[in-house]
Amino acid sequence: MINRDERIALFVDIENFAGFCAHFGLPIDLAPTIRKLSEGGRVSYLRSFGDIHSLPTTDRQRTEIRRMLQANLIQHEDIPYQTAFKNSADIRLVIDALSLAFSERDLASFAIVANDRDYIPLFVKLREMGKTIIGIGGNRDSVPEMYRTACDAFHYHEVLCTPPAGDEPDQGVGINAEGPFQTEAVSTNVAIPESEEATRSEERRV
Asked: Mean pLDDT in the chain?
């Protein structure tokens, strides 16, 4: 039974998410994450940040990522790179999360989709404010222990995307003010070159 009084905010570092999905051969699809979060409450705030245009993919694949975000009712904010390997998407995500924590006191949980240790101070501050932190990362081998322990709960995208034996993958679950509803989930298997993505991921984890 979903606790309708429990409100959850979802924040996505789209470059980080697309990067670890491509690196591990996982679908670039946030429907499984939303479906898992909706088991514990109502996902009422969904935001994504990053420069989709900078992803080393084709125009068609970038369009598929945007369609996936739209299909899952995630509002995306494009933040262009200021230098070759750095933009301000992580800072923008942090500011938005903290602003929401102060303005929406009834938001109980904050779910962050990323693998970036730069978000640990955000986790610490939100926990000081009494919020529950839910982390979503690539797989068990890719997420640093410090990053996991900074969260109250942690889910691996690799596990969320793997249906139980004999089951077919479900359609995605979008969330509106009235609760969950079925919607088309757009999965995008974007083939980001591993060498280039590894360089960028390492830059962002430093």
From this structure: 81
Instruction: Tell me how far CA of residue 59 lies from CA of 49, 65, 137, 138, 155, in angstroms.
Output: 18, 10, 26, 24, 30
Closest Cα partner for 137 from 20, 45, 52?
Answer: 20
C-alpha to C-alpha distance for 8 and 126, rounded to whole angstroms: 13
131 CB contacts (<8 Å, ≥6 apart)? 101, 107, 108, 109, 110
Whole-model pTM: value is 0.78
190 pLDDT more than 60: no
Tens-digit pLDDT profile for residues 129-140:
999 999 999 999
Residue 57: pLDDT band (50, 70, 90) is: confident
